## 1
Amino acid sequence: MRIALGVEYCGCGYSGWQKQPQQKTVQGVVEHALAKVANHPVRIVCAGRTDTGVHATGQVVHFDTRAQRSERSWVFGANANLPKDVVIRWAKPVSGVFHARFTARRRRYRYLIFNRAVRPTFLARRVAWAYRPLDERLMSEAAGYLMGEHDFNAYRAVACQASNPVRTIHSLNISRQGEMISIDIEANGFLHHMVRNIAGVLMTIGSGERPPVWAHEILEARDRKQGGVTAVPYGLYLTHVLYPDQFGIPSRPAFVQL
C-alpha cells in the first residue's frame, strides 16, 4: 500500500529535509515516527527537498508499507512520536503510480520579509529581516520580468545539479501588510536556491540599490555571479504542491501568515 502525507515543519533546528549521517533532519524524524506506527522501517519520498532553516506548511511525501492502518492512525500515531516542530497534517492512501516528486505539476513557496529598522524577536528565524526600507512597488515591477518560461541559470546555486535550468513561473506576487512583505511564487519546478536568489534580487531592487530592469538583465546574463546575494533561508516556506486531480491530494494551499 502507498500512503501520501501532508507534512508541516519549522526548519530552524534541522540540517534540511534530506537524511544525512550524524545530522538531525526532517526526513529522519518523520521516518522514525512512521516506523513506530508501521512496526517496520519506512523510507519516504518528498515533493521538494528543503535546505537547512527552510520551513514547510504544505510538504507532501509518500511511502510504501505492508501495515494496515487507518488514515487517523497514521496521522495521530506519527504525531505522537514526532518533535513539536514537525507535524503530519493529513494521510491518504494513493495508487502505486503516485509519486510525491515526479507526479507534482506545480509548487508554491512564500518568502516572508520583516521590514523595519530593528531586528525581530518573536519572529526570529521565522522570517528574513531587511533593515532598509523596501518599496514593494519596485519589487513587483521587477517580478514582472521573471514571469513565464526562462533559463534561470543566473538564479540557481552554483552547485545545482539540475541538467536543465529552464523553468516556468506561473505567478509571482509581492504584497505588504504593515512591516511584513510576502513574496508568493508558483512554478512548474524550482532550481536549487532559486527562490532565495530571486528574493535577494528583489530586496536589492526594493531598497533602491538597483532598478527593476536589473532582474531581467540577470536573466539574460545567465551567470550566477551577476545574480547578487542569496537571501537567508529562514523566510522561506514550501506552502503547496499541486497534483493531477486523479490522485485526490488535498488542494487547499497551506499559506503561512504571521
## 2
Amino acid sequence: MLTEPPIPSYKTPEIHSKLPQVKTTIFTRMSALANEHKAINLGQGFPDFQCDEHLLDAVTGAMKAGHNQYPPMAGTLALRLAIANKTQRLYQASYDVDHEITVTAGATQAILSIILATVSAGDEVIVIEPAYDCYLPAIQLAGGIPVLVSMQYSEGRFSIDWAQIGRQINAKTKLLIINSPSNPTGMCLAQSDLHALADLVRDTNLLILSDEVYEHMVFDGQSHESICAHAELASRSFVVSSFGKTYHVTGWKVGYVLAPKSLTLEFRKVHQFNVFTVNTPMQIGIAQYMEDAKPYLELPKFYQDKRDYFQAGLMQTPFKLLPVAGTYFQTVDYSAISDLNEFEFASWLTTEIGVTAIPVSAFYQQQIQNKLVRFCFAKREETMDAALARLRLI
C-alpha cells in the first residue's frame, strides 16, 4: 500500500512591523458590521448616487480614442491645465503646469508621498485632532514623530487654538498638517485662522500640508479659504485636493497636489516611484469635463440642500446637531440618548437600530470621549429617509 509522502512544513519569516499600533481602519470595521446586520451605512464617506453621465461619456470616449497607455509622470497636460485654470479662477493663484501641479492616485497617495518626501527620522509633525486616519501612519512610516494638538471643543463647536499650536513649534518641527473643510468636524478655516497661522510660521522653516479635498463643499454663502489664496502660506505649502470628492467618483482615486517648484521637485521624486503616474482615460475625461465649471461651482448648493434635508430629519430625534460649515458629514451629540462610549454607541446603533455611524473618538490618538458620532449625508433622499425613520425610533 502506497503512502503519501509527508507535506513539508515551512516557516513564514516574521516581519518587524513598521506600524505595530495600526489595526483595520474604523471605516472598514463599521462597514463590515453594517453589512453583517444589514444596516444603512452612513459611516464611510462615499456617495450612493451616480456621477454625471457626461463625465462617464468623457472617460469612455477617452478609452475608445486610445488613451490607455502611460501618461506623463506628472499627469496629462490637459488635466494640469484644467487644474491651473480652476485654481486661478477660484483663488487668483497661479501655479506653473509643468513644475507646480502633479496629478495623484487620490488624496491619500498624495498625502503619503508628501510626508515621505519631506519628513526624515526624528522630525516632528504637528497634527490637529480630530484628524483623518491616514496622517499618523504616513508620519510613522517616514520615521517622523507626530505631535498631537486637540481642537478646542466647547458648547458643540470645534475651533483651533493657534497659540497652543505655536507652543509646539520648535527646531525639530518639519511639517504642520491642516484640513479645511475638516473631516469629521465640518469646521472651515476663516481668513483670521490663516493670518494666525502665517504669524506662527513666518520666521520658521516649517512646511504645511493643506488637505482641502472638500474645497467645493462650503455652505451658507461662505467661501473656501484655500492656502492657495494666501501667497505667504502658499510659498511653503503642499495643497491637496480630490476629484473623487468633487465629482462623486471616490473609487476612481484621482487627486492632485499644488506646490512651489522646489517642493514639487522633491514630491515628484517620491511620487514617481510610488505610483509613477495615474490612469490615463480618467485624466483625459476629467480634463474634458472640467471645461464646464458649472458642476463644481454648483456643488456647494447641491450638498447644502442635502445637509439641510438631513438636519431637518435629525431634529426629530434626540440627537443634538453640531454646526456643519463644510464637507458632507454631520456630527451629532448623543449624550441625551446613552452613556455608552463612542465606539460602543456606534456599534449599538448599527446592530440594534440599523444605522451605521463613525465614532469621532476614532479620529483621535488620545483618549477623548465627547459622545459624538459622524454621519455621512452624501446619499440619496431615499437612503436618508430610511435611515431617519430608524433613528426616530430611538
